[in-house]
Structures are given as structure tokens and as C-alpha cells.
Amino acid sequence: MRKLILCAALAVSSLFAMAVQAEPVAGKNYVELASPVPVSKPGQIEVIELFWYGCGHCYQFESTINPWVEQLPDDVNFLRIPALFGGLWNVHGQGFIALQALKVEPAVHAAVFDAIHKQGKKLATAEEMAEYLATQGVDKDTFLKTYNSFGVKSQMEKAKKLAMAYQISGVPVMIVNGKYRFDLGSAGGAKQVLQVADYLIAKERAAQ
Q1: What is the rounded CA–CA span in Å between residue 42 and residue 162?
Q2: Are strands 76-82 and 45-51 parallel, antiparallel or unpaired?
Q3: How many C-beta neighbours within 10 Å does residue 140 have?
Q4: What CATH code is carried by the domain that includes residue 154?
Q5: Segment 9-65, tens digit of pLDDT
Q6: Which residues, other chains included, contact 181 with Cβ-Cβ below 8 Å and sequence gap of 6+?
Q7: What range defines the domain where residue 198 resides?
Q8: How far apart are CA 36 and CA 140, in angstroms?
Q9: Which one-letter DSSP state was computed for residue 30?
């Protein structure tokens, strides 16, 4: 039910959102956080996408954001962080963090999205994820060991704290330099999200 509420709310908001103007407007196209969150790599402009494997909007956004990420300049540090709202969100999020720790190819990340949204797999447990990932070249035992490791669980706690600091309520949502939050609804669509991101990246670069 939480999945339906969050994703449906995002869909409705995007239908009524106006297209981003030439210059995005604070309070309309993006929110400036009252308390900025420290970035992971000082000296670089941090861009974060918070997502969930089970969210259809996140899945659709992949084809738009991935080419953009590949062309980001060296002074931009892009990160993905799983949103953790409990239940299946946490299972998938822990799986994502485990895959990050294993440094798998982006194709594996895409395959998990496809398994859920094209093949109808729920991947509702670590074991189910491990079984599927084995078909993508990820050793089952290694994945499960990593999934249950102290390091991954520590990253889970960090992700939960960041989501609270960013004050997110749905996905996908973007954060620039720990200061600005925006999503498909506020920006006006997937392409407009990246326009807002580009604007805020330039804004932060000019302020350095």
C-alpha cells in the first residue's frame, strides 16, 4: 500500500506540475533545505538520486538519468541511495548496497529493475535476490554473505539517516550538494528534473 501511495502521489503531482521555466524557481521547482547535509566528498558537487527498485517511476527514469550521469563533469560526484521505508523497500535497499559493495557492473543493477518490472519477480527476500542474481553472474553465497555483513548494515543505517535529513516522502527524488531537493512533480517531468539538476550544479560551482 505504501508503494502505491508514494508512487501514485508522485504521478498525480507530475500531471499538474508546470514545466520548468528558463531558470528554476526555489520553493516551486526545488526546495532549499533549512539544514544542509554534509556531502561525502568535500570539494566536489554531490548529486544524489534516492530510489527504490520497486518504484515504476524510478524504473522509467533510468533511461533518462543514466546517459546524463555518464556525461557529468569530473567535479560532480553522483551517488544513488536506496530509500528505506520498511518491508520490501529495505530488502531491496539492502540488496542494492550489497551489490554496490561487490562493485558489480551497471548491467546487474538494470537487471534487478527488469526482473521486478518486466518479469514480475518480487525479490522479496535476500534468498530470492541471491537466486536471481546468480543468473546474472553474481555468486549466491558471496552475495548473501555481503548482504548480511556489518558493513552493509552500517550503510543501511547511514541511508536511513540521510533520507530523514533530506526529508523525503517518495521517490525518485534528487538532492544537490546536500542543499536542494526536487523530484518529477516539482520539476515537471523526467527531463526537467535534469534541467533543475544542471541549474543547481552550475549554481554551486559558481559559489565555490
Answers
A1: 16
A2: parallel
A3: 15
A4: 3.40.30.10
A5: 454 444 444 444 579 999 999 999 999 999 999 999 999 999 999 999 999 999 999
A6: 30, 31, 33, 166, 167, 168, 173, 174, 175
A7: 2-207
A8: 39
A9: B
